[in-house]
Amino acid sequence: MDKLGAFKEFVKQNPGLIKYVKSNEMTWQKFYEIYDLYGSDDSIWTPYIASDRSSDVTTAAASAIGFNDIINWFKTVDVNTLQSGINNVQRVVGVLQDFTGKEKTEPPKEEYKPRPLYKHFED
Question: Which of 3, 74, 85, 114 could serve as a FRET partner for 24 with CA atoms 20 to 30 Å apart?
Fold first, then answer.
């Protein structure tokens, strides 16, 4: 396997490198040069690989904490207050629609009545 193929396998094993390229902190060229000079087992990769693993753990912990907070918030919600807030928003939307004239109603059209056949223009 050539160096480029080995580098591709290294990236597949460490997908956290992708976020550094997407955020423009590094380029694939720089990562390849580091890989070519130091190899895959050097300590130079520690900041890129270790931060990826720790960010996954902190993201999972934050999402778990966020979910518990949301559940607790739903427990403390007063339904009557929530309903009155929704009603107020509906009223504001209705006033804005009236104000902007989005719901213009056309005046009723007069029904078409054909002219009788036996009458002429001025008869």
Answer: 3
The secondary structure element, H or E, covering residue 101 is none
Give CA–CA dist 21/74, Å, rounded: 39
Structure token pair of residue 108? 């009723």
Go through 80-118 and write b for each residue having 16 or more CB atoms within 10 A of its CB, e for each that does not.
eeeeeeeeeeeeeeeeeeeeeeeeeeeeeeeeeeeeeee
pLDDT digits (tens, 9 = 90+) for 77-113: 888 888 999 999 999 998 888 888 755 566 778 888 8
Contact 30, 37 (CB under 8 A): no
Distances (CA, A) of 22 to 25, 36, 49, 69: 8, 21, 15, 31
Cβ atoms 49, 16 nearer than 8 A: yes
What's at 44, amino acid-wise?
I
